[in-house]
TrEMBL record:
Transmembrane segments: none annotated. Residues 1-26 are annotated as: Disordered. HAMAP family: Ribosomal_bL28. The gene is rpmB2. Belongs to the bacterial ribosomal protein bL28 family. The keyword Transmembrane does not apply. The keyword Transit peptide does not apply. GO terms for cellular component: ribosome. NCBIfam families: L28. Keywords: Ribonucleoprotein, Ribosomal protein. This is Large ribosomal subunit protein bL28.
Length: 78
């Protein structure tokens, strides 16, 4: 599963882990990606979305219909 959110577009960030001796090694900051299944009443079917934790709260606020419209407006496939 790719580590990006379909709604917000959040992707991994990259940086360094800095040890006590100040040696730097590269690391990756992954978003909290989860797969959620929602009922899309307008199409009479379930949709499975790959969303970050913040995007799940956004779907709860604006509703699944508006969220799917935003995903499609970004060029995403639902």
């Amino acid at each position: 599963m790719s580590a990006h959110c379909q709604l917000t577009g959040a992707r991994p960030g990259f940086g360094n882990t800095v040890s006590h001796s100040h040696r730097r090694t590269s690391r990756r900051f992954d978003p909290n990606i989860q797969r959620k299944r929602y009922w899309l009443a307008s199409e009479g079917r379930h949709v499975r979305l790959t969303l970050g934790a913040r995007a799940i709260r956004t779907v709860d606020n604006i509703g699944i219909e508006a969220a799917v419209a935003r995903i499609r407006a970004r060029g995403g496939k639902v």
